[in-house]
């Protein structure tokens, strides 16, 4: 392995291991000596990487705009292309446009050989039937989830029964053939899944449920996994 490749691998190991990553952990991960890890950490620091820590305490990579450029392996490029094209095929209009823009930016920033591989990737994604169009602004809904703000909307269930719901939005998931909101429903006092194409008149409430989104999402996701195994 060339030294350049090893430095890129060390950057990836620092990103993936729970911080702070000890020199022993990094050495095991990369199959090199602890002494090599110390030397390569010093090299990355000299190139502009911000790495907190010291020998005996472990190291933490502080992401920064001055970090050396990130490289991709051949299969990583295929995975990126597949993922972005899948979003272009099934994402809501705003997200699909963003995936296309991301793919264009990625192609422009890769070395010529890798850009060619991205342009003519073996893997791709195609859907003959796009999911139903959301009845609300999905981009706004995502923003409310990030801000951990309770929202209100009109909803029509599978039987046609209409209701107004006030929910804490947790995550938007593509389930089977439609986009669905995973949320805590204030009306039912429980977790519920709502199809975006059955939602109308999305409104903010200015009520915050911060900082509970992540633990609530974990709890709901664990419940779904448990139910799927039953």
Structure description:
With 230 residues, the chain is an alpha+beta fold. Helix content is 45%, strand content 24%. The protein contains 8 helices and 7 strands. The protein has a 5-stranded antiparallel beta sheet with strand order 6-5-4-3-7, with helices on both faces. A two-stranded antiparallel sheet has the order 1-2. Helix 1 packs across helix 3, helix 2 packs across helix 3 and helix 5 packs antiparallel against helix 6 (112-119).
Detail the topology: elements first, then pairings.
Blueprint: H1 3-16, H2 23-30, H3 34-46, E1 50-54, E2 58-62, H4 74-90, H5 93-109, H6 112-119, H7 138-147, E3 149-156, E4 162-175, E5 178-185, E6 190-195, E7 199-208, H8 213-229
Antiparallel strand pairs: 1-2, 3-4, 3-7, 4-5, 5-6
Short description:
With 230 residues, the chain is an alpha+beta fold. It has eight helices and seven strands; from the N terminus they run H-H-H-E-E-H-H-H-H-E-E-E-E-E-H.
Shape: globular
| Unreliable sequence segments | none
What radius of gyration results from the CA coordinates?
22 Å
> Could you report the average pLDDT, rounded to the nearest whole number?
90
β-strand number: 7
Number of distinct helices? 8
- Beta-strand portion reads 15-25%
- Order of H and E elements: HHHEEHHHHEEEEEH
């Amino acid at each position: 392995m060339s030294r350049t490749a090893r430095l890129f691998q060390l950057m990836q190991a620092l990103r993936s291991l729970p911080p702070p990553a000890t020199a022993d952990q990094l050495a095991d991960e990369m199959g090199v000596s602890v002494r090599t890890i110390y030397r390569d950490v010093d090299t990355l620091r000299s190139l502009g990487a911000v790495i907190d820590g010291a020998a005996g305490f472990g190291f933490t990579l502080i992401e920064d705009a001055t970090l050396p450029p990130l490289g991709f392996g051949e299969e990583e490029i295929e995975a990126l292309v597949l993922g972005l094209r899948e979003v272009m095929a099934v994402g809501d209009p705003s997200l699909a446009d963003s995936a296309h823009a991301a793919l264009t930016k990625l192609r422009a920033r890769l070395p010529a050989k890798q850009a060619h591989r991205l342009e003519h990737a073996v893997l791709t994604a195609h859907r003959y039937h796009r999911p139903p169009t959301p009845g609300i602004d999905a981009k706004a809904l995502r923003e409310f989830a990030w801000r951990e703000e309770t929202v209100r909307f009109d909803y029509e269930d599978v039987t046609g029964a209409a209701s107004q719901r006030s929910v804490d939005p947790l995550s938007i998931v593509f389930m089977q053939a439609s986009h669905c909101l995973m949320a805590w429903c204030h009306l039912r006092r429980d977790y519920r899944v709502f199809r975006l194409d059955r939602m109308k008149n999305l409104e903010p409430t200015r009520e915050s449920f911060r900082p509970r989104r992540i633990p609530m999402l974990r709890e709901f996701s664990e419940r779904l996994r448990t139910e799927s195994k039953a």
